Structure to design on (963 residues):
RNA sequence: ACCCUCUUAGCCCAACGGAAGAGGCGCUUGUCUUAGAAACAAGUUAGUGUAAGUUCGAGUCUUACAGAGGGUACCA
């Protein structure tokens, strides 16, 4: 009987599904274990071999924990709202719901083939109204909340209204907008509906406010910071620009400190925590006011280096700063206006490309130095960011490299106030050295000067110590169709007398909870309207609250649904709440979360934010959603790039000079692309293009007239028309990069499953190397893994018959087994799955050599291997006569007594250099070992009469004699 | 520019600070086969990217540099 993996795998996949083997119980005496994969977006390309890497690892963990007696929650679902389905809808008219459904079906089919132990009864899809009803519900809770800095948590907005009623807002210690005006209780009582709504809006955690956003004209929507890469949209690569817009936002900044502090409690990689810390960007400094000369205005700056206050030689405002217009002198107005217009029109990408270019303009106005009273010019420059701090900096060119570059460029004075650098060459940014040229700070070390400067600034009432965070509030509205509708409607404002205010946008109200879900309406087209309204404005005129009031037309961003999905898995089908409180208490938080590191600052920050919010409101008991997190490395694809120099189109020859999609153009003005892998062969470790394939390539794409192949760094130019016989094999340059549909380097798991089986795929993906490390996909070693499974099979089947002995195993057999038990257990506990695979190989090699077919050895071995290769394990387990699944069989425990060695051969070394070996009983104490060693003739010979300085003895390791 | 990770045999990768090698691929030679392939058996190869330091002892710890991969990007 041969190992027929196709048949075996299908049978067991069917068995698991029919018997709901992996259904997680909500009540159990067993300890719980929650293992979760990062929510996949079901893209049209399906799974490639990189996706299952993490899923296999988490599945091994889930199966292992079941063997270990845990009640395991291991669910899967889909983050099914998102841009690609919508882009496809715009191009084809196909409703994104249909595309999404197809893609999910394809994902599911691929996932099922790999034999994961998911509890599919708990599947969730973010685009399902039964799911997004609760996403909307959570939004309403956030809308109805404010952040109380005194209690340091979110509270219901009613407590704030009550306070306004009693005392106005002067005593309120809340996280709110900068421009919040103060009012008394009396004023509050006389506010009309609009004014009350506006006042509260400054405090709500989900709020409608003006913000600079990343506007992407091509996608017709705003993007979050983490959805923008290199100044272009992460999905699609379209240019992004800055735009001031009224937007729904989330006051995540209120949680900045807690998000930072919480990191210390998490078992995440240091590098991931570091990225979050950096993204949150806490910095301690001082706010400081500069009086503008001959004006009532003041410029407030934020600085972390108040110690360098005497080194200020100018002040720089961001072009968007509100004072720019007010303080600019008539003589400078034209220049300033031009600069402001120019910097506004520049896209993010241009801005970022010009980071090293210095630009700016003088406003003509001056401030007074707060200590010396000296006149200091005010400049504007776009190296100052409008959104950070106060949008203004005190420039200390001597000790800040950006100010230095600006000063050098515009020939502004550079004053040295901290000794230790050479200011003729560069600024001296280090926080080390003594203060000079600084009046009362002279002679102090930087650290002491900082404290002294802050004290003096506060004493004189010029400013105060302040902590700033780089973390911005998250824009929450998207001008898109395929997302959760925001459950808000607008009522026209009313005057005190009750009459309606004409025009205006109306006052936003949250929908009552019994009207949820607010279902996504049908639209005729998935595009914005002619007047630039989002697609939801196309909904039928009946799509209105009570048939009268407009709903909000923007939808939620991709991260909304994924910010709480781990909770829904605990109680996926609950119609009455987002999840039952008792169940959330039982499942607590995720014990192991596995996914890619690309979510470091997006999803993983938002999910922590929502968790903290829900805890504040009393729905949860946990502060952090994911206790342990592992980033699986990326599986990269291998591509073979070529450059197209010119191409033929409708019988005309074109030279590639530029391209409007801004993609793939290299310096020489050629167009780079990757050859489809179907045309590339692999020989002697090199990628080659054969003559046959070249001919094929010509036929398929006859536009390519003149192609440069990059071959071992030499460029070989081939003309398609003149292709001659000389070239039979052309070595191609290959490079390792992200696996992506657009790069033609995607490998799917399907063909591997077909050819070698899912168990081989699972083992092989683990065998590739450490889980967290990125590695290129190659199938060179896959026959080794597949051979191993065949070898395992042959331990049970000799000459096509199951031959199993119930005899007592030999000492050697038991040693092989228990050594493996020990190693595998250690490997799983530290997520070292690659080494487990080789340990299995060693074990099977040894047992094969011992011709072991003892049940007492092979049964435990099957349990050991079942998390990794569950199908073959189930099959052999059942053939051994078991009628129950192997999934819950007790994981074997290592019996150390089988591993004990009688003796150990010590390497005896002098000064670290091994001279000879000495076999001694393993039980000998270090003192006895020393006696034995020192008594030896050879030792005396090596010592040559000298007395050893030190003798180091590590039992069962080494003996080292220091002379 | 900054931050993180990695660098061990022809290749992929192992080695609680204790004799550098477990495993797989590849390669070589057999056995078996009409042949190919498979299976089986035997064999094969590095002194750990470079330079310094800590240590009785360093692939492992520290520092600097180089290369590769990933992340962030004027945050005052």
């Amino acid at each position: 009987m041969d190992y027929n993996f196709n048949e075996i795998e299908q049978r067991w996949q069917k068995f698991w599904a029919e018997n709901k083997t992996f259904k997680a119980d909500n009540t159990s005496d067993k300890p719980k274990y929650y293992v979760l994969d990062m929510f996949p977006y079901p893209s049209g390309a399906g799974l490639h071999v990189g996706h299952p890497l993490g899923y296999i690892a988490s599945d091994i963990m889930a199966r292992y924990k079941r063997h270990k007696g845990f009640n395991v929650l291991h669910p899967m679902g889909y983050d099914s709202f998102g841009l690609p389905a919508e882009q496809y809808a715009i191009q084809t008219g196909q409703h994104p719901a249909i595309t999404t459904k197809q893609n999910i079906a394809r994902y599911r089919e691929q996932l099922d083939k790999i034999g994961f132990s998911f509890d599919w009864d708990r599947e969730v899809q973010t685009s399902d109204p039964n799911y997004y009803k609760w996403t909307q519900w959570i939004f309403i809770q956030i809308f109805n909340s404010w952040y109380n800095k005194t209690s340091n948590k979110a509270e219901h907005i009613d407590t704030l209204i009550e306070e306004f009623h009693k005392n106005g807002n002067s005593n309120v210690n809340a996280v709110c907008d900068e421009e919040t005006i103060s009012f008394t209780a009396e004023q509050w009582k006389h506010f009309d509906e609009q004014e009350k709504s506006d006042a509260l809006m400054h405090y709500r955690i989900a709020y409608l406010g003006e913000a600079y956003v990343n506007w992407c004209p091509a996608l017709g929507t705003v993007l979050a910071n983490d959805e923008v890469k290199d100044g272009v949209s992460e999905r699609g690569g379209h240019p992004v620009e800055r735009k001031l817009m009224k937007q729904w936002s989330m006051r995540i900044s209120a949680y900045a400190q807690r998000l930072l502090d919480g990191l210390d409690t998490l078992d995440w990689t240091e590098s991931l925590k570091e990225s979050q810390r950096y993204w949150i960007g806490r910095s301690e400094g001082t706010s400081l006011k500069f009086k503008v000369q001959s004006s009532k205005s003041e410029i407030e700056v934020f600085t972390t280096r108040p110690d360098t206050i005497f080194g200020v030689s100018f002040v720089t405002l961001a072009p968007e700063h509100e004072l720019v217009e007010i303080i600019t002198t008539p003589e400078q107005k034209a220049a300033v206006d031009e600069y402001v217009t120019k910097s506004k029109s520049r896209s993010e990408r241009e801005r970022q490309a010009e980071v090293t270019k210095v630009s700016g303009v003088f406003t003509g106005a001056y401030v007074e130095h707060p200590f010396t009273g000296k006149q200091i010019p005010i400049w504007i420059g776009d190296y100052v960011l409008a959104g950070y701090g106060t949008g203004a900096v005190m420039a200390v060119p001597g000790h800040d490299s950006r100010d230095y570059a600006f000063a050098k460029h515009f020939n502004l004075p550079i004053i040295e106030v901290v000794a230790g650098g050479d200011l003729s060459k560069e600024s001296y940014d280090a926080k080390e050295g003594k203060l000079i040229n600084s009046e009362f700070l002279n002679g102090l070390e930087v650290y002491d000067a900082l404290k002294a400067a802050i004290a003096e600034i506060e004493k004189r009432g010029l400013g105060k110590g302040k902590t700033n965070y780089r973390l911005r509030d998250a824009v929450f509205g998207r001008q898109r169709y395929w997302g959760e509708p925001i459950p808000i409607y607008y009522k026209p404002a009313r005057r005190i007398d009750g009459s309606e205010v004409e025009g205006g946008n109306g006052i936003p109200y949250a929908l009552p909870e019994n009207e949820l879900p607010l279902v996504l309406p049908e639209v005729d087209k998935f595009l914005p309207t002619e007047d630039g309204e989002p697609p939801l404005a196309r909904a039928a005129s009946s799509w209105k609250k009570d048939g009268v009031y407009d709903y909000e037309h923007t939808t939620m961003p991709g991260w909304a649904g994924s910010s709480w999905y781990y909770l829904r898995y605990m109680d996926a089908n609950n119609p009455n709440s987002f999840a039952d409180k008792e169940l959330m208490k039982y499942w607590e938080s995720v014990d192991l979360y596995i996914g890619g590191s690309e979510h470091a600052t997006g999803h993983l920050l938002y999910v922590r934010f929502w968790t903290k919010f829900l805890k504040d409101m009393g729905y949860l008991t946990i502060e952090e959603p994911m206790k342990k997190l592992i980033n699986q490395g990326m599986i990269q694809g291998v591509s073979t790039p070529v450059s197209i120099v010119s191409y033929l189109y409708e019988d005309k020859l074109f030279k590639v000079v530029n391209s409007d999609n801004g993609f793939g153009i290299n310096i020489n003005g050629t167009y780079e692309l990757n050859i489809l892998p179907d045309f590339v062969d692999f020989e002697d470790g090199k990628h080659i293009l054969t003559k046959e394939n070249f001919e094929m390539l010509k036929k398929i794409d006859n536009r390519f007239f003149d192609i440069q192949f990059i071959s071992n760094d030499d460029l070989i130019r081939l003309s398609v028309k003149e292709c001659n016989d000389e070239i039979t094999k052309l070595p191609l340059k290959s490079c390792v990069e992200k696996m992506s549909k657009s790069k033609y380097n995607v490998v799917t798991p399907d063909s591997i499953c077909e050819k070698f089986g899912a168990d081989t795929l699972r083992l092989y993906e683990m065998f590739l190397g450490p889980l967290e490390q990125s590695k290129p996909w190659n199938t060179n070693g896959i026959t080794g893994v597949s051979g191993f499974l065949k070898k395992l099979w042959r331990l049970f089947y000799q000459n096509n018959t199951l031959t199993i002995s119930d005899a007592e195993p030999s000492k050697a057999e038991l040693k092989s087994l228990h050594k493996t038990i020990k190693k595998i257990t250690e490997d799983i506990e530290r997520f070292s799955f690659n080494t487990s695979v080789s340990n299995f190989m060693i074990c099977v090699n040894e047992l094969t050599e011992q011709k072991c077919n003892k049940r007492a050895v092979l049964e435990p071995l099957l349990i050991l291997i079942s998390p990794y290769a569950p199908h073959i394990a189930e099959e052999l387990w059942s053939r051994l006569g078991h009628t129950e699944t192997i999934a819950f069989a007790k994981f074997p425990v290592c019996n150390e007594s089988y591993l004990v060695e009688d003796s150990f051969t010590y390497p005896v070394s002098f000064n670290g250099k091994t001279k000879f070996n000495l076999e001694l009983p393993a039980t000998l104490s270090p003192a006895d070992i020393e006696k034995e060693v020192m008594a030896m003739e050879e030792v005396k010979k090596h010592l040559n009469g000298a007395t050893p300085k030190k003798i180091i003895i590590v039992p069962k390791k080494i003996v080292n004699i220091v002379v």
The longest strand of chain A covers residues 206-216.
